[in-house]
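Practice problem. Given the sequence and the SMILES for pyridoxal-5'-phosphate, write out the predicted structure.
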Amino acid sequence: MRYFEEESTTFVQSCGSKEGAISPAIVSSASFAYGSPESAEKIFDGSIKKPMYSRMGNPTSAKLESLLSDMDGGVGAIATSSGMGAITLCVMSLLSCGDEVISVGGLFGGTYAFFTQSATRFGVKTSFFDVDDLKQIESAITDHTKIIFLESIGNPNMRLPDIRAIAAIASKYGVLLVVDNTLTPLSVKPLELGADIVIYSTTKIINGHSSALGGAVVYRAVQSSGDKLSSSRYPFAQKFIDNLGQGAFIGIGKKRALRDFGMSASAHNSYQTIIGLQTLPLRQDRVTSSVERVALELDRAGLKVNHPVLKSHPHHSRYKEQFKRGCGALMSLDFDSQERAFRFLNSSNLATITANLGDSRTLALHMASTIYADFDEKQREFLGISDGLVRICIGLERADDIIEDFIDAARSI
Ligand SMILES: *Cc1c(COP(=O)(O)O)cnc(C)c1O
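Answer key:
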């Protein structure tokens, strides 16, 4: 196996149990009985660690949280109802009216809409930069900047950020760096590169079968002295640091967002996500290898392909140096016009046409007529959405079958 040999052992071993039920238990209970008023008091003040109420945490979701936290070397995680729930939890728990976000790189449509349409209604302003605008990013940081937000790979523009370089800027100014690592779990380890918080839509390749919506926020440990979080930029944080020490972020996420907004994960979805997680290393290895082959072969066949494995891609050398474990299953094809893109999609026998990503099947979607239909010309240009753009997410089919089907479909248009 090329990329994820070690994780295969850890993941199957840690998802199961050596005694009793092997598969994780689904604890389908909204509330939990405390037994006595004395233990109720202790559960509420946190001195007894037992479930309080499923909005604030559930044993099945707690298992998922510990697996995801271990995957990224975090101190803990909070599972959520969806990836957008995870982004909302992270942003709303750290920001107040008047605060600012710096967003770097291509953005998932839902996240872009969240920053430009919803967060703005609460007085949170976001400015957007390309991954290579390092100087502009640095000069945009003000006293009100609370997070720098980026995706590990631009979806669907395929631009790759230099995460270490952006983390160094975040560190210089004491601003938290949040990385949405949905498309590259295992491939990219944001906390090791200097990020503070990692976000997942587990709906995608972590679940891997389009069977359950979910999300998670993974946090790093807070250091006992000199941590970014203890500076005057985050005045609300000190009481969480005093009470929870290295786990302060978890308290901030739960008490400043999860409790009041209620984007909690359901036990059934967390269970399905854990089942998916067991085979994540195998699947990520497969699609990461396949996407490179498909991209190279389609390029050779004369299609307009966007993937950094190609020498013509502006971030090809960054891909080779900093993305040694690939950048997930995504690539895109440009057919120049909506009509030609539609003809390709109608001719392909293999692609499933849907907005999801990271499924076991190969997925495809015309961007400008669907997810980005509401966006104006300027926004589309910034996000790299051309008229003929088709986003492809490679699945577990044999790479040769995908290549043959796509070349046939492209010839027929
Ligand atoms: C899908 C996606 C989300 C949102 O996740 P949902 O589970 O659909 O809410 C966020 N970020 C990225 C990169 C995504 O692909």
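Check your answer against the key. DSSP finds 15 helices and twelve strands in the chain.
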